[in-house]
Structures are given as structure tokens and as C-alpha cells.
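Researcher: We're teaching a course module on how sequence relates to structure. For the next exercise, students receive a sequence and then see the predicted structure as C-alpha cells, so they can try to spot secondary structure elements on their own. Here is the exercise chain.
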Amino acid sequence: MPHPAPAVQRSGGTIAPHLRRLLEFVEPGRDDVCLDVARGRGPMPAALAPRVRHMTAVDAMPDPPASTGRSGRMTTVEFGTGPVRITGGDAPDGDRPPASATREDHRPHPVGPDRPTIKADATALPYRDNTFSLVTARFSLYNLGDPDHVLRELLRVCRPDGRVVIADLVRGNLAGPERDRIERLRDPDHPGTPSIARLTELITSAGGSIRRLDVFTVERPVEPWLAGACDDAAADRIREALLDEVDGGPKTGAKPRVIGGELWFTQSWAHVAAEPIS
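Model: And here is the predicted structure for the students to work with:
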């Protein structure tokens, strides 16, 4: 019976296997001046800070509305995964064209107890062109604003010899639309999961040149993911659909199965490293 991969102990805390895989893909260096743009507070700034020269964290989540929404739940801020099983993967590639802009200057700030996360609009970052050698966005690209505008900003503030690393959910190029039906049951505002080809096309059309790609499959327990459902009725409908598929019913695209008495489902994740086209 498969089990989740164990987390690995590092100085300053435990790093989950999926985050460790992303860090290895990012390849942070001691001379890197790094910017992480997230929706809320993600784990990347704390993981990267000991490995780079300067770390700046931007929280691009809009201010919360007066009410908490349909069910009284707050919008999910972090991409919480719980335990995951990484089962491997492969990759395609992409094409190009350019981008550019100017903004008033804010110097990069190191992250630490005396350096709070900076609130900013991801489509109008308050940094000059070519400020950072490493720019990261993890599981937030489609929640930060128009993804094309966001990508142009991430590439704009990246140095010509630097890299922008995007980590996000994808669906296989041959996958059908069923998977997004489940996502929209959980979150009616879900923008849809892009294909791998669509994600790389977005990056290249925003002015990035794809340099590396890591696409792999993970299995996650359903319950931590359902904690972010819009309401309990939606969570119940998703559980019912997944269990029905386990019993031979209609396919959801989530490839559910029961592991150790617990319901798990499958997602595809992609790490993409790009550099600005001069």
C-alpha cells in the first residue's frame, strides 16, 4: 500500500517533499536577489531566504471584502496540500515574443522578523525593470489578476540573465474538461486549469523563453482540499462523485482511490523556468 513521502528535516524546520522538489528546480544561489509574488503568505520566502542574498515577499491578495461570502468561509489564501505522493512526469516546450514597462522604484527588501510582507498589485509591481535575478510565483498565477499581465510584470522585474519560476496546477494536453467541473464545484470562481501547452504559451507570449519544465503527478488526500470548498453541500457532492468513480461510476478526471481507508485524488503540477527575452 503506497504512503506519503516523508518530509525532510532542514535547519529552520521541516520541508515537505513537494516543496523540496520545487526548491531543487529553482536552484537558488547565494548571489540571487529574489522576489516571491503570492496570494497571501506562502512558504516560498521562508524556504528561499536562507539560500539567497536578498528575499522580497509580495502579498498580491486583494483586500478582503466586507462580508466573507456565501457560506461565511474566508477565501482560501494558501495552497495547503497536506501529505502528497509524487508519482513522476515528463514535459513539452514552447515559443516566444517580447514585453517591457516602467514603474517607480522600490528597493528589494530582505525577509525577516523586522521585514513584513509587502502588499502590492501583481499587475503593477512597484519595482524597476531588471531588479531581481530570481522571481517566483507558486500556485497563485491565476489568482493574482489577468495572468498575461502578471507574467509580463514578473518578466519585467527580472534581470535579462535571471529566471522566473512558475509553479502551478495543469492538466495534461489530452485531458478532458471533467476535471474543471470538480474544481468549480469546490470553488465556483475557479478560472479553469490550463493545459501544459496553454501555460507555456502564456509565458512565451508574455515575453519569456522557456528554459526548463518539470511536470509530474501528485496524489493528495481529499479532505484537506475540501476544507476550502464554498460550502458543505458542495464538499458532499464532490465526495459523492469521487466515491462513485471509485466504485466504477462516471469519471471525474481526478482519478480518485482509497489509500489506507482515506479518499485520495490526483493532480498534475508543473514547474516552469523562463527568462526574459531581451
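Model: If you want an answer key for the exercise: Residues 232-246 form the longest helix (15 residues). Residues 1-13, 65-80, 89-107 have pLDDT under 50 and may be disordered.
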